[in-house]
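Hi L., both proteins are below.
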Amino acid sequence: MTTVRINGKDVALRICPICQREVLVLMTDFATGKRFCHLCYEDPGSTMATVARKIHDCAVAGTLDQYPLAERIADLNGGHWKAKERRESGRGQARVRTAEKTMSAAFIN
């Protein structure tokens, strides 16, 4: 089984039960319980498959740090999570205000 190095740790690639390819991310259809990868998903252009593909490609290339969490969230939501205002508190947390929602996220230092 192949591994990729993420933040100094070796992470094993998973085997997709549908296409038998090695991938980093498996998605689950909660209605049926089926697991699949971005390569065999029925809608490869969907935001979910696009983010899974980017995570896999960046991890294999060793550049996952260049695809930050904020960009992943924006990609999952069609780019609608762009921060208008960001405030940091003394405890390492930030509040991000968006056009549609407000979310709190802990910073990883």
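That was the first. Here is the second:
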Amino acid sequence: MKIILSLKIILLMIILFGIFYILEYGFSFDSTDKLLKPSLLSAITMIMIFKPSFKHYIIFLISICLVLMIISSILNLLRFSNIVGEFGFSLLVITIILYLPQLIKKGHIERV
């Protein structure tokens, strides 16, 4: 039973990694440097799916990323600002998508 659950988790992680990689870089594979961001996004998404109590910490991480983006933009560190801002905004979109079922269930958003 645990083996089946582990295989499902690994399969979901691989599928999420593929989706995030294609959304970020398309179908081009130039270097291994491009594997970090989709890996982090898929790992954090798995944490949000299987440990919903950590969503508050991830929202805190999102706010830290966006504040770092603003500060680094003011300090003219544009490359760092771009990287941190993209990562923070990606996490924000994932968090909103994962909160949607709860908002619909509670009646804050009406079904169409």
